[in-house]
Amino acid sequence: MKCFKKVFTIGFLVISSYNLQAQNQTPDQLYGELFKRVQLEQIFADGKTFVDMVPLKAPEEIMKAYHQTKDEAGFSFKDFVQQNFELPKSTQSTYGVKNHIKQLWKVLERKPDSLIQGSTLIPLPYNYIVPGGRFREVYYWDSYFTMLGLEESGEINTIENMVKNFAFLIDKFGHIPNGNRTYYISRSQPPFFALMVELLANIKGDGVYKTFLPQLLKEHEYWTSGDRLVDISKGERLSRYWDDNDSPRQESYREDFLVAQKSDRNLSEMYHHLRAGAASGWDFSSRWFDDQKSIGTIKTTDIIPVDLNALLYRQEMIIAQAYNFNNESKQANIFKNKAVERLKLIEKYCWNKSKSFYTDYDFVKKEQQSQITAAGLVPLFAIPNAGIIQNHLVDIVNQTKENLLKDGGIVTTTINSNQQWDAPNGWAPLQWMAIKGFNNYNEKKLAETIAKRWIGLNIKVFNDTGKLMEKYNVENLSLRAGGGEYNSQDGFGWTNGVLLKLLKIYPQYDN
Prior knowledge:
Shape: globular
Number of strands: 15
Mean pLDDT: 92
Number of domains: 3
Strand order of the largest sheet: 7-10-11
Helix content: 40-55%
Largest sheet: 3 strands, antiparallel
């Protein structure tokens, strides 16, 4: 009997392991030649369309039919794809600003998922909010900014459900993937989980820290180990963005393939840089380009990003706080010391004296990046009340006014490279971190100026189009935002969240 139980247990584990592996297969693993052909022949204008489609039959049946019919006279590849896959549903809305954002949450809300064979969607156990448009799944860093608006809407259960979903993903994968798709598992996004836990704790009490401490620790280990951790000099270590795969991104297969081929660089190296750029959330920006112009010179994995390490400082301080609430002062001090050491290294490697601003650091070339970007304001947001930052405040304010402040808010960078995370575009998360950061350091006038201009632009575009957008042109308020691999999307989760939060703080601009 014991022998039977042992054999049964081993068999069950093998089957479970197989099922888990099958669930996490990416489109290229499921459809091989068919997948590559769809992407390279541009059967759909947006490369993300196919990888989000749901098969109407089992994948192995589709592939069998494909191989049997592909060489027949009159075979139409496009028709074959459309007959065997269901187009993903878009998430659009026509509700108004502020008074109707609460209704938008219902448009963008998704219920707990069911497992569908052949679908790339990773099922989540609780309700969640998607950004909108082509973004039909939850996205990691987007969700924090969405939660700001959910809080103002009284959607506390939704916030808690989303935090639980992210804890579930950390338990499942050891980190939070870029989004809940199989093709996103190999990378994460800017680490905002600790800030989500802090936000929920401020609403529901300090017990929240204890509940999610195991996941906070797991995520910290992810960002401070393996290829994400860089030994800069003599044991001085900071983190970078990284993706474990070295092939074209599934959702942008053709774009990555063509960029890499044209670059004449090592393909594996190029794909790592491109994927790490996606992990940063800034996909793409001249911030990552060696010549600050061309994506062919991308070098994301060579760079120590100032924003990432500022966020990890905040993560470490929140973990220290969680340990304190758990009456574990020794562990709390360990993480506080980690944060203090990280701040020293941020100051050493990312404070650019010649630019009087925080910039990224190229650890391969051993030199600071010369470009002033909105990422340089994240230390003010993530590291409040630090004397070392206070000492630079006059310079930071002056450089922000001179280089980043525009008629519609804060511009992403000073360079127009035709990439979406460059001039003339502005993005909701960068506005919020700039506004919150300057308020953290009592620069309330500048914070209010940014808020006023961003709110005004959001409302203007909404009045003109009836839409809240993913990104905005902050330099020319009469033009739409552009650049990047896809058209500007409407919906839009983090824009809704930040706008609603700002209108609560600055009600005088609600018109």
